[in-house]
């Protein structure tokens, strides 16, 4: 494949519009560019998480997710186009089942805290939720497949589970919210 990006500073967006993958231009304030930007931000945060020391299996899942998010972003940028394949959601479900099976049952809500890697996974979770909301907003004004929304929903669940996994890498644990309910449970133990 030839070089696709020959010039980065085109100045074509100076008027407040952005180009889509089908060569149409839309206002940067519309739903599609918002969704594209949130997916791009999510992918960037996952890239930051990949800078941390991670178990090999987690790293492999996240690298795969980055590629799928690029596909998802491409699909959003080209109205009516399909880039995100059904097996992408299946791989997320498999990873979710695999990592969730290793974790103890939650006693209470947990805080988005712990190790730096776990905390970054929580940031990815929250950005995934925002990206999902942006895709939902886009789907309210334009016809679009359900797969992008479903992928982001499942990815946010996976990032929650991976945050819990990453807090346990060196024998750590979840950081529980200090609630009255948890205090009573611990008193009775």
Automatic annotation (TrEMBL):
It catalyses: 2 cob(II)alamin + AH2 + 2 ATP = 2 adenosylcob(III)alamin + 2 triphosphate + A + 2 H(+). Its EC number is 2.5.1.-. The keyword Transferase applies. Residues 1-36 are annotated as: Disordered. Residues 8-165 form the Cobalamin adenosyltransferase-like domain. Residues 1-10, 20-30 have a biased composition (Polar residues). This is Cobalamin adenosyltransferase. It comes from Comamonas avium.
């Amino acid at each position: 494949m030839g070089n696709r990006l020959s010039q980065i500073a085109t100045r074509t967006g100076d008027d407040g519009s952005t180009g889509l993958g089908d060569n149409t231009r839309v206002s940067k304030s519309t739903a599609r560019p918002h969704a594209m930007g949130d997916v791009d931000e999510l992918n960037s945060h996952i890239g930051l998480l990949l800078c941390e020391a991670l178990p090999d299996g987690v790293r492999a899942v996240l690298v795969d997710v980055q590629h799928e998010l690029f596909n998802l972003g491409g699909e959003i940028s080209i109205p009516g186009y399909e880039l995100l394949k059904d097996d992408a959601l299946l791989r997320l479900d498999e990873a979710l089942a695999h990592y969730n099976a290793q974790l103890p049952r939650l006693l209470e809500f947990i805080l988005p805290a712990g190790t730096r890697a776990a905390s970054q996974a929580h940031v990815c979770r929250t950005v995934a939720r925002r990206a999902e909301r942006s895709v939902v907003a886009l789907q309210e004004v334009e016809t679009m497949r359900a797969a992008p929304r479903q992928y982001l929903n499942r990815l946010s669940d996976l990032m929650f589970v991976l945050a819990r996994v990453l807090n346990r890498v060196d024998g750590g644990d979840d950081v529980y919210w200090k609630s009255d309910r948890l205090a009573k449970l611990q008193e009775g133990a």
